[in-house]
Design goal:
By secondary structure, the chain is α/β, with parallel strands linked by helices. It has 14 helices and 14 strands. The strands form 3 sheets. Strands 1-3-2-4-11-5-12 form a 7-stranded mixed sheet, sandwiched between helices.
Length: 367
């Protein structure tokens, strides 16, 4: 199939998915307010804003946002401007919320950020910071799959057609010399697109033989008897690759740079605290997951999942470009123009003020 036809089909599917999600829950579920964060007495509004609306996923790979919410870092920096939250299950629905101005700033994976940027001809969003690396594993049924060669003929789940893990798995399959049709998922390995919430049950029922998924889903599968066959970090230089970015609406960035700076300052402070206090941070992230979803993770899932994620302010821009190349190779994306996808100006200002090293856009924007 020509790449252009594959792209049209892929974008059509990805456009439909957020509509289904949005019909069910609006522009993301509103995160519950546990009143942990209080507005300091005498605090003033930033840029005259009543609120800043922040989106993130209920995944541990979005731990920066979970902790910054739970520990009050966002509210502290925003002063009398209220930090409001919306949680999402998939990147396309968060991009739709950003486009509709239902959120202002979001934590999101690289593939939906790339898709959102290219589909709008570079007009709707900017990546303004990094958040996390790693936290993605290939977990399999050890009774059926004992080595990589045993994957042939098996059914492996990924979260969604064209999402970050789906692209990574398709690229890895190609590197093994196997053939899979990216759209249907059929081939030497059958790729089954399954929501992360459903994947553990699909694994238990035997409808899939494993999954290439982010945390905590990977550790949930291990708790069900699965075995980690591959940690995606092992495939990358220095074992680092972007799994979560921070994005913003371009009009919001232009009109409210002080508000963006406040959120980025909170993110940098949160990452510093996470790395200095890993056990407390893990507990805080889990508590926020419980508030948002109604259920905290058990220690058997939380502990190994948290250990596999690195929290970093660096967006690891060079790896985002590589992930875009993987999507092109899979036939899910025409070669994109990402030269201005990053604006790290405010982040580097915050990092300098904090005495931290600045980060690079790797030629894909403003550092």
């Amino acid at each position: 199939m020509p790449a252009s036809s594959a792209l049209r089909r892929s974008l059509a599917v990805m456009a439909a998915l957020p509509l289904l999600t949005l019909a069910a829950c609006g522009y993301g579920s509103q995160a519950k307010d546990d009143n942990t964060a209080k507005v300091a007495a005498g605090a003033e509004k930033i840029d005259g804003l009543d609120s800043v609306r922040i989106g993130y996923f209920g995944n541990l790979t979005h731990g920066t946002a979970l902790v910054a919410n739970q520990k009050g870092f966002f509210q502290k920096e925003l002063g009398a401007t209220k930090a409001k939250y919306a949680t999402f299950n998939a990147g396309p629905s968060e991009i739709e919320a950003l486009n509709s101005q239902s959120i202002d700033i979001g934590w999101i994976g690289p593939s939906p950020a790339i898709n959102g940027y290219t589909k709008s001809d570079g007009k709707n969003l900017k990546i303004i910071g990094g958040s996390a690396s790693g936290g993605v594993k290939l977990v399999v049924n050890p009774d059926k799959i004992k080595s990589i060669k045993d994957l042939k003929g098996k059914k492996i789940a990924t979260p969604q057609l064209g999402n970050t893990q789906d692209v990574a798995f398709l690229n890895w399959i190609a590197d093994q010399g196997w053939k899979v049709d990216a759209q249907s998922g059929k081939g030497d390995v059958t790729v089954v697109r399954t929501d992360n919430k459903i994947t553990p049950d699909a694994y238990k029922s035997g409808s899939v033989d494993g999954a290439w998924v982010p945390e905590p889903t990977a550790s949930k599968l291990v708790a069900e008897g699965g075995k980690v066959l591959l940690d995606e970090a092992s495939l990358w230089p220095d074992k680092k690759f972007v799994i979560t970015n921070i994005i913003v609406r371009q009009d919001f960035l232009k009109k409210h740079p002080k508000a963006v700076e406040a959120v980025l300052k909170a993110s940098v402070e949160a990452n510093k605290w996470i790395n200095a206090n890993p056990d407390e941070a893990k507990t805080a992230a889990n508590k926020q997951l419980g508030i948002d979803s109604g259920k905290e993770l058990p220690a058997a899932v939380l502990d190994p999942a948290w250990k596999s994620i690195q929290f970093t302010d660096d967006p690891l821009a060079a790896t985002l470009n590589t992930e875009a190349e993987h999507a092109v190779k899979a036939g899910l994306l025409e070669k994109p123009n990402l030269k201005d996808i990053y604006d790290l100006t405010i982040l580097n200002k915050v990092l300098k003020a904090a005495g931290e090293s600045t980060v690079s856009a790797a030629g894909l924007g403003t550092s």
